[in-house]
Amino acid sequence: MHKKLPVIIQGGMGVAVSNWRLANAVSSKGQLGVVSGVALGAILARRLEMGDPGGHMRRALAAFPVREAAKGILEKYFIAGGKDPDERFAVKPMAKMNTSRKVQDLIVAGNFVEVYLAKEGHDNPVGVNFLEKIQVTTLPSLYGAMLAGVDYILMGAGIPRYIPGVLDRLAEGFDVDLKVDVKGLTDEGDPYIRFSPADFAKGVVGKLKRPDFLAIVSSHILARMLATKSNGEVNGFVVELPVAGGHNAPPRKKGEFTDDGEPIYGERDVPDLQIIADLGKPFWLAGGYGEPGMVVEALKSGASGVQVGTAFAYCDESGFTREIKDEVIEKSRSGTLKVFTDAVASPTGFPFKVIELDDTLSNERVYEKRTRICDLGYLRHAYQREDATIGWRCPSEPVDDYVRKGGDIADTVGRKCLCNSLVANVGLPQIQRSGEIEGILITSGDDAANVSRFAPEGSTSYSAADVLTYLLSEVENQGSGD
């Protein structure tokens, strides 16, 4: 591990909410800034189509070592002055088991650009957060982040036991593969995705730094399994409690819900921190730790620090649109903001926290009005067809399509398109051929109800530095680590 561990890890939230600006601001202050690694290929393409205000995408692409790939991306997606507001974004091919070179280029470059910009102007570590459930883009995403010198990989929403070994091999420039979860897999199926650094970089890139791997876990059982049975070293853990935003682990006791339909968490869902500490790895506590006293408590418990997401989500540097920040902070200030743990919203099957706002997909009326479509495809599930080839389906796609592919119609009820809505949250919504503009769906931890504490009265503006100052205000030696 690094000699100096961060006390504060800024959470890797949403799609480009934890963007390069936010991670750069946090890392510049000596804590660990983290970018979200989800859908960065699409984000890069859409930023270029918007005209790349400030020239940041082009500046980072100018440093991308595989020049031919960078040139092709700019030629295809960059629009000087930005696309017409009524024009649709280009529809990009979805990643699949044998992803095309052009799609690989976009994924690798998207991750490189975000990490490169997050690391610009300082010498402190930067991390990137991935979801284990999004498997088909994992290998090129990891490689792109490593090309930019990423220092930490954080991964949750699944059991990432094979990622440490992948990092070992990518650092050496070796070919890698990763088994995808395939429904109905038989011996005839091939469930592996593959990536070759040598083929991609064509000899331009040699060995790379192996980033530290932090597994995001919700139980001591999973932490112990990953520490002992992964195919490489797990360097530490982020221990996430159910009040954290985004995807939550399902409760250990299934089938119990509140009157409002939220899953009920009990004593079995509380991780045993002593067992985690006994593993001998650094760990950080997440979910409800956005207060100075909680940071001190975490350090006293043996943790290296805390991971905080929601407090940073609405600061000036985050990727949420200004309209979203203003509305959430105002509702927080008036005491009218409600966070709901939706057991069915996410096509992953994991509970997913959403803020209930009238004009978002959390409103049943808005949800029912939306035309179902699957055109980004990051949360699709793999399944084996009768001819042993691998197909893809998503519980949030058109119901008839999902059922035709062998899916259970019950799985489609209440499912929301997180891919499109989360991209819309950062001001890059697709305009569908019908003219329908994709709506937003805001995910946050329970702490969103109190986020107005960071903004001065009469204002909805505060900075990442403000959050860090607040969080560290009771820590005697700010920024100290193990």
Explain this structure:
The chain has helices spanning 20-28, 40-49, 56-61, 67-77, 101-119, 138-147, 163-172, 197-201, 220-229, 273-277, 292-300, 310-313, 322-334, 364-369, 399-404, 418-424, 464-471; strands at residues 8-10, 33-36, 126-131, 152-156, 176-179, 182-183, 192-195, 212-217, 236-240, 283-286, 305-308, 339-342, 352-355, 381-384, 390-393. With 482 residues, the chain is α/β, with parallel strands linked by helices. Strands 1-11-10-9-8-4-3-2 form an 8-stranded parallel sheet. Strand 8, helix 9 and strand 9 form a beta-alpha-beta unit. Helix 2 (40-49) crosses helix 5 (101-119), helix 4 crosses helix 5 and helix 6 (138-147) crosses helix 7 (163-172). The chain is globular and about 55 Å long. Residues 478-482 have low confidence and may be disordered.
